[in-house]
């Protein structure tokens, strides 16, 4: 290791009385908190629900020596699923960052949730990670959520390693084809399983031709010790043949993908490809993985404690170090601090805890930090290394690491943190001086790391405190929860004054409700769950309006003429547009133009039919005449009133969210699931076979999906799983729209 380790600490298991931090012991070279950057791996684990991410993480922590006993999801005692609801439900809700060391590498690992309601958690994690492990249930192959997270990883150009878990299941199969076809990835097979189902006992490493065998002596065997032995003639001839073929295929595949390896093969090993040293093959696989030309594939069974150590080796061998990833913005900061806040948690004693990914510079406790997004400076008190729900206090942290900070009260997820306003300005200057960057982006946005895109919530409901005296407490709690979870939106209904919770799904809102009760001790009442509809218009329409009002001594007079028309969703991606005639553009002062824009945009937020946000509407401002002395607020008010007139004339259309649904169900229950779906206005797109199961792909309006998990469980005696994801917004037919309008206005 060439770089100097700035500090070494070790967690001691006795807690300081009255304080949260652990005693810190300065040690020698063996426990680096600030590893040199090329030994760091910032890794996420992603997969479909129940593929075994949490079980795999637990095994990793155990083999790395960070836990002394194996946690079990089914017993609810895992390290990473530490929230009460996670332990009870056996699912991962919040991604927990875990830091541990493996063979002198520092691994910062984020265990991410598989349920689609928490997709944003995955997105947040991916934004700050350098590599990912995709865990598959080998008996199910590529499932819906894997596809979603895979696409997310592609978006962030994240190199991946695949782990085919659950090889001990009778139906387990080596789903390489499914990875190739469904994920459109190029699997690079690095291992061959030895035995299958119950008889799965180990793997053959194709790089070294070594057999790694877990000879479990009892059910309690933790798999820490396994036998490594070169394959020889005494081995099963069928296995020898399979390994030989697979190794040749691997060498050929890697040579196709990596020119350097191909050249080496053709020059030094042209006589015998097989004699290529395993380290040369490994280096080539690494280059292929980093270039995202191929994905290494390994297999094992986390629950049965087989195959996890080679997966850890693969993480260090093939996934990139932070300095091997290109982050455009970071170079403007040189050695100054630049970090991204990617998660906020609220701790009752310590206040907000902010997870930061450090891209450049060094972070130290008590530092004043500048938040570019909020244009504010605040002081951080402590600096910690996250170890699930336990944290180790440290004196400094360098680029490439993930840190947990205490004391940042204004920072929210997605903010860029730097050392001072001056360093942000220096970075902006450097960005501007660079001619190429100048072309790309001339504003200070170029020195801000991009955060995560927050999808629009599809469900909402009212939330009420038990009494008015608790309203302020509830508002405070909701503020904290929103900082933690940007996919949760809270607003106040302007008509009723009620507080509205908007979320990504039924489970999301249920969990929020539960957390308010458990973690903050407020018993709230939730109104019925409602669907977040949208509105659009059917025809073109024009309107004009004049506002003439005297307030006190002052007379405000404004006249507005405008036109609205529906636009093709494809051309504007569903958003609304505003344009001014050329003549008007020249006439309006900047202040009055802003007033007009405010008036139009507030109308876009509340459609004329039911008050839902508008989509795919274009507005053209044709005339605005303003008498001297008229205030901008009056201009906005007149524009909004005129917009409402025009929108009403243009005929309203309600758009409903339509979800894509994937149900995996046994043959015997397929017909009842199909029958139920027909009653929910569902459209079946495809029915595929997956082993003994059928996979039903359909689209269905979200409004019909309330309580679906309970109904599906009853229909199939618990033998089905489903995932639901927003597909599009579609126009309702006139009859359904009328029924909805009547229901929502209380006439039904
Ligand atoms: N047979 C078998 N079962 C496994 C294996 N790994 C995990 N499981 C079981 O699969 C179920 C789901 O495991 P988890 O580790 O919670 O999966 P997860 O992907 O973290 O699930 P979420 O957090 O809910 O997304 C549990 O009942 C595990 O015991 C395996 O290798 N073999």
Structure description:
The chain is built from 20 helices and 37 strands. The protein is globular and about 100 Å long. The model is unreliable at 1-32, 85-95 and 440-445 (pLDDT under 50). By secondary structure, it is an alpha+beta fold. The protein has five domains: 33-324, 3-Layer(aba) Sandwich (Rossmann fold); 328-437, Elongation Factor Tu (Ef-tu), domain 3 (Beta Barrel), CATH 2.40.30; 459-531, 2-Layer Sandwich (Alpha-Beta Plaits); 536-650, Ribosomal Protein S5, domain 2 (2-Layer Sandwich), CATH 3.30.230.10; 655-745, Alpha-Beta Plaits. A hairpin with a 2-residue loop joins strand 30 and strand 31. The strands form eight sheets. Strands 18-17-23-14-15-22-19-20 form an eight-stranded antiparallel sheet. It has a seven-stranded mixed sheet with strand order 4-5-3-6-7-13-8, with helices on both faces. Guanosine-5'-triphosphate binds next to helix 1.
Annotation field: number of helices: 20
Biggest β-sheet strands, sense, barrel = 8 strands, antiparallel
Q: Report the principal-axis shape.
A: globular
Tell me what portion of residues adopts beta-strand conformation: 25-35%
CATH class of the largest domain: Alpha Beta
Mean of the pLDDT scores?
82
Instruction: Bin the helical content.
Output: 25-40%
Subcellular location: Mitochondrion
Catalytic activity: GTP + H2O = GDP + phosphate + H(+)
Binding site for GTP: 47-54, 111-115, 165-168
Protein name: Ribosome-releasing factor 2, mitochondrial
